[in-house]
């Protein structure tokens, strides 16, 4: 694992020992391994609020059923998990049932963590015990009635959750199996990128093909050539996960958070394994639509808007500028079935990810103050049907829904 992460974990252990997490002869090794498990599981990404103490409770998560706030998982005995036992923690991670039998919501991705082997869970527990206890009482469950009734999760688990460890595929390489384990297990990629059933569980038949998430569209990450990562090389996919930037796109929104807190801190070997696995999923493209004719009124209007508002950064033919402004030509991000993220970028703007390797964090300014819904729809329709792209037109109603 990253030596710096290991040393930080050891320092934390020395500064904040907690009796509830008794050590043993190999505790230092367990803490180091557990720190890396926290990276793989993106624990800090959810359980650390912007500007808040590490792991003391996160920012609100909007779900189709209401709002949840990731709780305090520091060893504070009153407001954190300091009075939990190791068995409580194992149960929460693999069954969705925490201390005193409290039922967890699957926004905490225990269906994915259930694939983790017990030693890895135990190592994570050892690491969490070294974090400085923080008194921060988080009201995690802010769902409206009846979803606020946690016992409903008994029925949800029966319908949507079958706990079982990861089963390697003997026909695949060790690298492929490692990638499959990470994607399906601790990295819980499907929690964002897989469409959900009406009950909020993963639609297994459409795994990783893209899903709506907190006002964003988490894109298709299968090997589909026009909407997924099929046109990316393995090296380009690894670069994106490691730095948030490659020749095709720049991460922003929830993916920027995941890269900053998790994938940018993974080992090159694990990133390579993830890329190897994803590149084998598909291709699953539906029939590619025919681009709208340049003579279409929306295309003509959108072209004019693009020249005035977008071409200075993204280029006259959507070529972009390396590491600063993403290319729009032949772009899987542009060609997604859902244009929510694109509309959000234009209306609200966005900030690129910050990583040690790529610290620039280029920004997309908000244009919503000067472009109405019809103008945003037309410029996006133009981009989605130019320079090798072909996708459904964007309607003013889609933009209005996002704006509201």
Automatic annotation (TrEMBL):
Residues where heme c 1 binds: 43, 46-47
Cofactor note text: Binds 3 heme c groups covalently per subunit.
Domain Cytochrome c span(s) in chain numbering: 27-132, 174-282, 297-387
Positions with a binding annotation for heme c 2: 189, 192-193
Sequence positions that bind heme c 3: 310, 313-314
Source superkingdom: Bacteria
Primary localization: membrane
Residues of the signal peptide: 1-22
Gene Ontology annotations for the cellular component aspect, listed alphabetically: plasma membrane
Name the UniProt record assigns to this protein: C-type cytochrome
